[in-house]
Amino acid sequence: MRPTSAIPDFYYFCFAVYEPFLTIIGFIGALMLVFSYPFNLESLPRNNSDPQATHNAQAPWMSDNPPPATLPIATLVSIVQLGHVCALVGVINLCVLTAARKHLHGNLALQEQMVNALLTPLVIGDILHLYITLWALGDQRWEFWNWSPMLWTTIVLGLTLMIPRIAWHFGVGRYVHSRDGVAEKK
Question: Which residue has the higher pLDDT, 163 or 140?
Fold first, then answer.
């Protein structure tokens, strides 16, 4: 049976529900961490739930260059801005994919082009994000047993979005005009 959508339910769930959920939760977490940092850091448990520990867990620190004793305000602002941009990308996914499903269901070739325009830069970003994360680990990149919970979360959640995006680009389980549009004309 020929697929009837360029964004079937599985892909819609991944990119219009799951990804916005992750990015909005991440943004809320960044806000909670950053706004609690200068004021009541002592009340936070010391199990990687404060911004200092989260920041320091992003990549290994060289013994001759330890992490800063306190995070500069510019770093805290960057954390919030990065969280905001990630949440914005998630909301854009939700809006664009919902509109493509609702308004372009009768024009699958155009629906595919619109979804492709959204997912192509995101899959490039997924690949670069994974590459940069592993690059930052230096010689420790393959020492999985030494990875922090933050690093594992970054890698695993990134792969849960990158793999479906790659599958979408390969046309797995979805309408592909160059393949399915030909069958339509016959």
Answer: 163
